Every structure is written in C-alpha cells, then in structure tokens.
User: What shape does this take?
Amino acid sequence: MNNPFLKISHRYLIIVTFIMLPNLAHATGGVYCMSKDEQAQISIGMGHVPIYTPINSYAKYGDKEWSSTPRDGEMQMGDSQGMVEGEKLSVDFADEQIMEIIISLRVDASGQEDNEDGYEGILTFEDNVPHKVYCLFE
Assistant: This one.
C-alpha cells in the first residue's frame, strides 16, 4: 500500500526531530562520581529543574553493574528517591521490588573548593560499605 500522506508525515517527523534534539540535549545535565580506585562509580542524568528529576542512571561496584535501562550483564535499578537542597544532593536507589535500598549517594558541595577531582561524596552499595567518591556536576 503506497500512501503519500505517510511519506509526508514521516518527513515532517524527521525535521521536527532534528529541530528538537539540540533543545533536549541542552535541557539535561547530571552528576558523575567515582572513587580513586575506580571500583565504585555512579552516573545520574538529571533535568535542569530545582527538584531531583532522574532521566537515566548507571552504577558500578567491582564487577557488578546496575542500570535504569539494563543491557547484557547489568542489573535493573529500581525507583530512585532524591533531594537537592542548596548544594547538597541525596539519592537512594531501590531494588526492583522497592523493598531495599541498594545504592545511596550523598554529596555536600557546600564549603568545598572546586578542584579538579570534583566534590567529595559518599557512595554506598548493598553491602553498606561507604566509598569516598569525587563528583562532577554538569
């Protein structure tokens, strides 16, 4: 079936997509944290609004990996709850069943000098061992 309307509307969709992509990319930022030994790390994509709005997330601890959109070998991150208050960021990720907190991040940038390593924070996984991480914000 050859429908000319579908061809025209498909072309318009492509044009609109290219016009909107730069705006969508500009509207996002996030935080990336990693320990000095690179064993513990987390990346959280967030919208630029005054409240915590995660878009996507990824974390790694040793040989374990979690993702909000898991691929081969990655475990599913459940829902997250977080808060941005002044220069403090607090985030908790639950398991898929939302029964336990599996990943926690705490960063307090207030009073810290901006250095090349980033702001100090604490990243904790299921084993409740705190890892000192350095965080960069976009």
